[in-house]
Amino acid sequence: MIRVSVVGAQGRMGSHVVAAVNSASDMELALTLDAGDDLNQVSRENTDVVVEFSVPSASLDNVLALIRHDVNVVVGTTGWNEEKLETVRQALTSHPDVSVFIAPNFALSTVLAEHFAAQAARYFESAEIIEMHHPDKVDAPSGTAIHTAQKLATARRAAGMPAIPDNTQTDAGSRGQVVEGIHVHAVRLRGLNAHEEILMGNAGEQLIIRADSFDRTSFMPGVLLAIRHAGKTPGLTVGLDTYMDL
Ligand SMILES: NC(=O)C1=CN([C@@H]2O[C@H](COP(=O)(O)OP(=O)(O)OC[C@H]3O[C@@H](n4cnc5c(N)ncnc54)[C@H](OP(=O)(O)O)[C@@H]3O)[C@@H](O)[C@H]2O)C=CC1
Ligand SMILES: O=C(O)C1=N[C@H](C(=O)O)C[C@H](O)C1
């Protein structure tokens, strides 16, 4: 049995993870922790993998504490940038058996949408991203949208494409956040869960790739997949696509 502890266990995602682990025949729930709880309770004696869904401001410190305790970590919390990822890589050098896996998005539909969009990116002059979420979300734009923009930008650079055309002369914020040259727009609307549209255009044509997570259960197959991989590839891994043989 894989012994799984959950950090952020009472949150919207954490509570779904607790239920998913309890329903998985090859897993057992170890500790459930939240804000204010002492992560020193987690050790190799009681936990094989920790799943971390907390808040962007706390996630790095949580991950560093868990690495110090030599347990594998699966992270869904957003807010990661290259500097934070490098801090994790450095921390892992003195814990060579530990794996840290970070996924901007665990929904298979969204991971596939991003993958297909990256494949298509070099064929389109223009690209923009619209992400749409529930209004209780604390960060904008979404971690997924930032990651998708980075993937599109990498594909465009590799293909030697020029900057995206945009003759906007005045902008008080309506054009969204620019991530590596890609405009990213965020919508917050009651009734939504997590949705992303990747728009690509040429003269006279448009391709829209859209993924919809209507319910948080959509993230659970990806979370369980990551738990089952934990420890098999020590070091830092980012993105569920790495486990999907795409
Ligand atoms: N990768 C993916 O597929 C997905 C990622 N997410 C991301 O996951 C994160 C959590 O989202 P969501 O569950 O909706 O948020 P919630 O606010 O519902 O849950 C966050 C939980 O973390 C707890 N918490 C706060 N601070 C700490 C801390 N320092 N240590 C441990 N726990 C803490 C909160 O406790 P309290 O309420 O008491 O403060 C709460 O229980 C977000 O960054 C979100 O963007 C969400 C969905 C999918
Ligand atoms: O807060 C959420 O809900 C979500 N957060 C992640 C993100 O910011 O990309 C993943 C998903 O979009 C849901």
TrEMBL record:
Protein name in the entry: 4-hydroxy-tetrahydrodipicolinate reductase
Residues binding (S)-2,3,4,5-tetrahydrodipicolinate, per UniProt: 134, 143-144
Sample GO molecular function, one term: 4-hydroxy-tetrahydrodipicolinate reductase
Pfam families recorded: DapB_C, DapB_N
Species assigned in the record: Alloscardovia venturai
EC numbers on record: 1.17.1.8
Catalytic center residues: 133, 137
The Dihydrodipicolinate reductase N-terminal domain, residue ranges: 2-106
Major localization class: cytoplasm
Domain Dihydrodipicolinate reductase C-terminal as annotated: residue spans: 112-240
Compartments, as annotated in UniProt: Cytoplasm
Function: Catalyzes the conversion of 4-hydroxy-tetrahydrodipicolinate (HTPA) to tetrahydrodipicolinate.
HAMAP family from the UniProt entry: DapB
Similarity comment: Belongs to the DapB family.
Keyword Phosphoprotein appears in the UniProt entry: no
Reaction equation(s) it catalyzes: (S)-2,3,4,5-tetrahydrodipicolinate + NADP(+) + H2O = (2S,4S)-4-hydroxy-2,3,4,5-tetrahydrodipicolinate + NADPH + H(+); (S)-2,3,4,5-tetrahydrodipicolinate + NAD(+) + H2O = (2S,4S)-4-hydroxy-2,3,4,5-tetrahydrodipicolinate + NADH + H(+)
Pathway involvement of the protein, from the record: Amino-acid biosynthesis; L-lysine biosynthesis via DAP pathway; (S)-tetrahydrodipicolinate from L-aspartate: step 4/4
Keyword NAD (UniProt): yes
Keywords in alphabetical order: Amino-acid biosynthesis, Cytoplasm, Diaminopimelate biosynthesis, Lysine biosynthesis, NAD, NADP, Oxidoreductase
UniProt subunit comment: Homotetramer.
Binding site for NAD(+): 8-13, 37, 76-78, 103-106
